[in-house]
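Researcher: For the annotation table, I need structure tokens for GAF and ANTAR domain-containing protein. Please keep the output clean. Sequence:
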Amino acid sequence: MVAMSTTREQRLASTFVSLADTLVADFDVLDFLALLAERAVELLDVSAAGVILSDQRGGWRPAAGSSERAELIGVFDSQTTHGPSMDCVRTGVTVASTNLVADAARWPRFVETAVSAGFRAVCSVPMRLRDEVIGALTLLNTQSVPIDAPSVELGQALADIATIGILQQRAAHRDAVIYEQLQVTLHHRTVIEQAKGVLAELGGLQMHEAYTVLRGYARAHGLRMSDVARDVAKGVRDPHELLSSPTNIT
């Protein structure tokens, strides 16, 4: 038990260092959120994780996940109107289910999509800015087991880090500035989807593989992923250059 605790503490320390290294001037919010989701999976021993954000127009959209697999993206897309994440952002408290099949009547569309993708349990924690919730970090398990209290608390801590990262220490600014930044972040996510499509079609790749190529190229060249995606989507940057470049994502 001591060894497991020590290992987890080491992984947690490494996570905070990685996230802190990412929080530089003009950092890539979407790359940061993807890193956060990936580390949440590792630290909390869950099967998958993802972040949804408010579009500040009354809607909610997926921003990042621990994987770009089509079925996982579908799970997060399915709960942009109803689901545990929606209940979480509306109430501002953690929402969980250890048996999605039994909760089918509660979230019919989400449960159908999540169960089809192999998931059996879910836990969503809010991303808060003062008293306002701007999004949620959702954790998924393939087994019908609860996420223990310490892990939920750690998940909440990671969600809080995500909120700070998104706002880039602009909490003191006017809400209009905050809302504008969230809008830009979600627009960048749309552009990344377009670039993934270009790379996937040209390279005969799965969407997750295309995302890995895009992200790896951006990191290897010290560029923001959203900027590279924009260039690829607009035809300014040759996608063959990305496909032939080695990717080193850590």
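Researcher: And a one-line annotation?
Model: The mean pLDDT is 82.
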